[in-house]
Amino acid sequence: MGTYWLLLIGLPLAVGMWAQFRVSSAFKKWGDVRASSNVTGAEAAREILRAAQIHDVEVLEINDYLGDHYDPTNKRLCLSSGVYNTPSVAALGISAHECGHAIQHAKAYGPLKARMAIVPITSIASRMLPFVILGGLFFQITGLITLGIYCYLILLAFQLITLPVEFDASRRAKIILGEMGMVQAGNEAAGVNRVLNAAALTYVAAFVATLGNLIYLLLLRNRH
To answer: b/e per residue, 61-80, with b = 16+ CB within 10 A?
Structure first.
């Protein structure tokens, strides 16, 4: 099974590390490029939400590097300090992307609603995985291997739904930033594209990794 470990575990891990490197590199590069609009991520978020007639979403600063996210349950748009306080091309791209999720929520965007609906069962599956890995992979307990397959199927469904949600939020962000004049066409718009495209790779990498683990467990169960 050495080859399977390499292809189904090592390859997804390498893809994930490459995706994270792309994100960090893009953020570092374009985080040092000041946008000509001189608008910080927080200012951009509030202006975008106001323009979209969204008045019930709070914009907060968090101390979590690249931990920017939109919390639909509490209607909070959380921006890391480097995004919240910085008028950089990268900060505007990330801020607008998270605003894209808030707009999706306000417009009842189907894939986002589906993702929110399966969050509880996804959380349960994620918490069960350590026991599945211990009992299924190390002790070769067939029942736990089967349970692991179901867990990964749930995670795979969640990540599959996540892809259009993230791609759509980035699409909205690029349009909004251009229409509102927060980034200029040319170099600044290209920077936003590179930051958001790199971030999208992390979701693709997560999907590939989960698919690899699922295939591995299926092969392992067939051996028993």
So the answer is: eeeeeeebbbbbeeeebbbb
Q: In the structure encoding, which two tokens stand for residue 181, read together? A: 């004049």
166 is annotated as an active-site residue: no
CA nearest 64: which of 84, 45, 35, 93? 84
Reduce the DSSP state of residue 169 to 3 states and report it. helix
The one-letter amino acid at 37? S
Spatial neighbors of 145 by CB under 8 A, at least 6 apart, are 132, 136, 137, 217, 220, 221, 224
Q: How far is CA 114 from CA 52, 165, 181, 204, in A?
A: 22, 10, 33, 18
From the candidates 43, 98, 166, 188, which is the catalytic residue? 98
Helix/strand/coil for 175: helix
pTM above threshold 0.85: yes
Domain ranges of the chain: 2-222
pLDDT digits (tens, 9 = 90+) for 5-59: 555 566 667 777 888 888 999 999 999 999 999 999 999 999 999 999 999 999 9
User: For the segment 48-94, what is each residue's pLDDT rounded down to a tens digit?
Assistant: 999 999 999 999 999 998 899 999 999 999 999 999 999 999 999 99
